[in-house]
Amino acid sequence: MHLTALFFALALDRLVGDPDWLWRRFPHPVVAFGKAIGLVDDRFNREDDAPAMRRHKGMLAIAGLVALALVIGLVLSALFRHLGLVGFVFEVAIVAILIAQKSLSDHVGAVGAALRAGGLPAGREAVSMIVGRDPEGLDRPAVLRAAIESLAENFSDGVVAPAFWYAVGGLPGLLAYKMINTADSMIGHLSPRHRDFGRAAAKLDDLANWPAARLSAALVAGGALIVSGTKAGRAAAGAALRDAGLHRSPNAGWPEAAMAGALGLSLGGPRSYGGAAVSAPRLNAAGRRDADLRDLDRALAIYRQGCNFLMAITLGGIFVGLA
Fold it and tell me: Considering its fold, how many domains does the chain have in total?
């Protein structure tokens, strides 16, 4: 039943995405998770505590937040089972809400549309909506590379990982993953305030994203095979296996390196955050740096084919379960 619900959720999200009219009227579940994380951060992350105490409190905090998500998932699962077909429809809707297929495609596609319509200033503004780096110093190829990197990374943690954890653990698994991932984005970074308190959230997010990152690289390679042929598919797989470990993240390098290989681009490298230069290795370093709009269009096509493969795998699992 989980795989059946997942298949319909993927199809629904692919068609509808996150309608603005809905979230103008109701809070998104991830926003609710964010408020819970913010309350815990404000209440327990005290600057006058020793680093060891802050790490200890951070462990307890993320454990409590994940437990809360699991309980909510268990209650909803029991309720939806009791409601029969109506409950199944509600569950499909919740899963679709927590998967970001269409919204990711729309946001990344908006960068290309902005560059075409308004040139570099509009492209910088559009890409600033999806990446954290400083947009002012980005030239046109750098804007496009940033958008492609965001597409690849978020394919893993915005699409593949939620689908994976729902398939494995139903709504409790999905909600627990979204809580972990949201906590990592809010408190799992190396700022002075969160270096210690958010350490457990960051490590748990690394663990939760481990399987999906590797699967997403395979899906990118499969998408490249369909879009650009055997050579591109092999280049994607080869770049992922060779360069994924160069990335500062133990997971993001897999889909990003695969996308770099698929497109023949070199992604990653130095960038600026908040005026501070950050050094980072290049993935597929022998590739081109001069990304153009055709590369972005091809990246989106590969992404969509990767989503198709994910749906096909889900459908295959349904048939195996019925056999």
Answer: 1
pTM of the model: 0.94
Q: Which residue has the tokens 């023949």?
A: 264
Range(s) of the domain holding residue 159: 2-322
* CA-based nearest residue to 205, from 86, 58, 314, 83: 58
* Mean pLDDT, the chain cut into blocks of 10 residues (323 residues total): 93 88 80 94 94 96 97 97 95 95 95 95 93 85 95 96 97 97 92 92 96 98 97 97 93 96 93 71 94 97 97 92 75
